[in-house]
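Fold this sequence, please.
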Amino acid sequence: MPLLFTPYSAVLILTALVSAATAYAAWRRRPTPYSTVFITMMLVVTGYALIAAMEATAVRVSDKLFWSKLEYVGSNGTALFFLLFSLAFTGRQVLIKWWTVILLGVVPYFDIMLVATNDLHGLVWPSLTPGPAGSNQLVYGRGPGFFWAIAVIYVYVLVGVGLLAEAAIRRSGVLRNQALAALGAAAAPVVGSLAYALGATPPGLNVVPMSFTLTGLGLLVSIFRLGLFDLVPVARDMLVERMDEGLLVVDAQERIIDLNPAARRLLHLPPNSLGLDAQKVLAERAVILNAPLRPGAGRVEILIDTDPARYLTVRRAPLRDRRGTPSGALYLLHDTTDRRQVEAELHHANDQLQEQLKEIEALQSELREQAIRDTVTGLFNRRYLEETLPRELALAGRRSLPLALIMLDVDHFKTINDSYGHEIGDDVLRTLGELLAARTRSSDVACRYGGEEFVVALPGMPPDSAHERAEQIRRAFSQLRFRSEAGEFGVTLSGGVASFPADGETDGALMRSVDQALYAAKHAGRNCIRVAPAP
């Protein structure tokens, strides 16, 4: 198996050595009846750290995945023995039987099996992403199974915290001071697991085994150097009371039996909140944004109807007594208002960007129309014809279809401008543009080619039909009358017709043919249509 030693793997190996040394020191002293459980817990931490070191050192993805799965044996085992240590430490050694250990190990065993079978369902790690180039890190995607496993470990640790906190509350004086001195040691795994679960640690960095090492060292110092034989595991005033996340503990009837200031602040609860129904409190103060909380474990998004409104994520984990009977639940409240606001701002910015893109597209379309349209007649201009005609010819060639061109010229247009003015001349051109638009198909391309010349491309139309169409346009236009200060007058057209491929196979050749046909009509006396002569 190829290995790559990194600073992280070195730290984990050091963690294993420290944990083993702590267990050895405790074994040498063994002054309390719960030392055996403590030593076992530290040995489990030692194995946990070594497995984590192997994962950090492995290079192949398959090897890293193997050690990652095995890490869950260490993490769940550490949480289990932490709870057993709490039972023994608080005077409940009688509860630690072989069947108790088996019962408490059911859920951790399920977590281990869930991780071991991840290849079948992908609930724990739905994706595996290589770390930065040049490193052997592997970033694990986090699925619902991952958060379930973390929640189970977190619940076991917090139950142990609750047992030891209860013992600290019952004591006073020196014993309470001794208990407070040990709180920092037990806070490390809670903070470490919470930071790891929330992604607050660098990708690929698992600080949980190292945090249990701090716990072991703290407990060892507290027990054997400071004489702290009555311990509590988590410093409530340093962790639970000051944590940003709200914490609610309820009994089997959903009555609040404990909460921290963050929960009171987030839910706007009165000082005398103990005994209130947690589900009723949430129903009165919040709007459930998705599915309601189930009796077991679950997660919901809620909206606290205040000014300003607050969004919370509520996670519920069930608690069980020593016989495995449901005894309550743990609610964790996380304020997601800032994240929601950022998402709303991003959504608003995205909407604005979409509107701007639509405006730009509309402007581009308008500019495109202006670039290809003649402003006087509304028909396409010469530029558009020069872009379109080669494509239409290529299409006609592939499909073996004809294509006809009609070129029309207003007879004596200069005389009209000189005699009646350019405004009347523009009216003549505009009227001819309207006639061409009305007498052509949607597939035809009618253009003002320049000055008083117009070209109509007729895809799929044979020469005879094109000649007839040109005659119709000529006759219709000659029947129109235009008004000026000098009186009414009529205007005539001359035109030429050419077709593809008989009169030209390229746009240039076809335009020359239709131009020759137009000049033939002019030489024939104007007000007529001529077909391009055979080449």
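The CA atoms of residues 2 and 59 lie 6 Å apart. The domain at 246-335 is CATH 3.30.450.20 (Beta-Lactamase).
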